[in-house]
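Run log // design_07
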């Protein structure tokens, strides 16, 4: 079945339901396993945006790969492509132990993001306890390396951009708080059990199949993307291909054990400049409309208060408003110096190819 035929339709808010991330296409490949990396690799979150990209790249590079999925019916294409599938859940230690049999490296992407209607406890069980549960199982299975995917969101609102790995933590919501706690508990558990762990904090990711920044690409391309406030907050994002390569380097570098790396891009620019670049590549004139922040912030607070008890997605919420006002610029010098990480996809090239992919898939 063609990839796009499995997409559900756009709803009125312009969001898409989950696409078929398990489609086996685009096996662009990684350099291939080095001599001491011949073991099996487990990818959690393999049905998500980044986990599925990691999986495709590993399969394309000739690695022996196993995918952890919650629901086998979401992984049919993977199985057809010959990927070994382990059914499991970050809440269930026994399923993790089964999935880790004969595994040498784990890339742990599974996580829950901001989702309406989920109690905070659910975030805790998956994002805080999940990584430690996995590390305990990895210890029994004598796994050689666990790469835990955290987020730059643990730094929250950055006072002095660009932020590096030592910048203060300032998580702003339950997602960021539980990602921070999850990362800290993962480090403590790995140290206690002697499990070789590397933490990666990705910058906001973009590229083909991404749903989160799709809203911005689509809004700009359709000239329906007003900017709240002045638009001078710094923004940077990492192309999914660069992210995946950085994660692999973090997983394979012997000296990365016990280290934390921000994987992003140092091409940061104001939101105004980014929107102009997307408009230029989309072949449209930027809308150029700026709206004041505070009415949207107040409306966001009100919408959240009304919608959340009813378990419906608020049309606007405060985090979305914060997108326009908070700096997201990150320093990647540590990954560069210690891993040899170098982003290869320029922002312009990445924006161009992402727009082309969205158009071909009928997403914009
Ligand atoms: N996207 C970004 O811009 C960004 C930026 C920084 C960091 N990150 C981090 O990168 C990682 C991947 O992000 P993403 O955007 O690819 O996420 P995503 O598309 O939302 O995918 C999340 C994945 O986690 C799985 N999952 C959720 N709960 C689970 C559970 N209880 N047990 C097992 N699997 C579970 C989902 O499986 P189902 O298919 O069954 O739901 C899905 O495969 C996350 O750790 C995220 O915090 C993302």
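design_07 sequence
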């Amino acid at each position: 079945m063609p990839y796009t035929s499995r997409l559900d339709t756009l709803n009125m808010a312009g969001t898409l339901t989950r696409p078929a991330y398990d489609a086996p296409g685009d096996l662009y490949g990684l350099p291939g396993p080095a001599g001491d990396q011949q073991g099996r690799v487990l990818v959690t979150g393999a049905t998500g945006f980044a986990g599925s990209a990691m999986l495709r790249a590993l399969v394309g590079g000739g690695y022996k790969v196993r995918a952890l999925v919650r629901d086998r019916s979401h992984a049919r294409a993977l199985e057809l492509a010959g990927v070994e599938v382990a059914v499991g859940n970050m809440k269930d230690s026994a399923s993790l132990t089964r999935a880790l049999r004969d595994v040498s490296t784990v890339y742990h992407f599974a996580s829950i993001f901001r989702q309406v209607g989920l109690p905070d406890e659910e975030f805790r069980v998956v994002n805080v306890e999940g990584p430690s549960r996995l590390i305990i199982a990895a210890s029994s299975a004598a796994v050689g390396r666990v790469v835990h995917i955290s987020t730059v969101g643990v730094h929250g609102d950055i006072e002095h951009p660009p932020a590096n790995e030592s910048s203060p933590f300032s998580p702003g919501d339950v997602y960021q708080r539980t990602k921070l706690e999850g990362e800290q508990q993962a480090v403590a558990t790995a140290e206690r059990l002697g499990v070789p762990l590397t933490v990666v904090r990705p910058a906001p990711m973009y590229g083909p199949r991404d749903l989160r920044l799709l809203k911005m690409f689509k809004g700009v391309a359709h000239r329906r993307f007003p900017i709240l406030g002045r638009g001078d907050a710094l923004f940077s994002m990492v192309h999914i291909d660069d992210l995946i390569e950085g994660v692999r380097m973090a997983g394979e570098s012997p000296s990365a054990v016990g280290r934390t790396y921000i994987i992003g891009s140092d091409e940061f620019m104001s939101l105004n400049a980014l929107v102009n670049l997307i408009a230029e590549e989309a072949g449209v004139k930027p809308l150029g409309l700026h709206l004041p922040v505070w009415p949207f912030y107040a409306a966001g607070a009100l919408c959240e208060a009304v919608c959340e008890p009813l378990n419906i997605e608020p049309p606007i919420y405060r985090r979305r408003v914060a997108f326009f006002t908070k700096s997201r610029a990150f320093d990647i010098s540590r990954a560069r110096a210690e891993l040899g990480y170098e982003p290869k996809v320029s922002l312009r090239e990445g924006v161009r190819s992402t727009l082309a992919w969205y158009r071909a898939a009928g997403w914009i």
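Residues 44-51, 70-71, 74, 89-91, 109-113, 126, 149, 151, 179, 202, 204-205, 212 surround NAP (CB under 6 Å).
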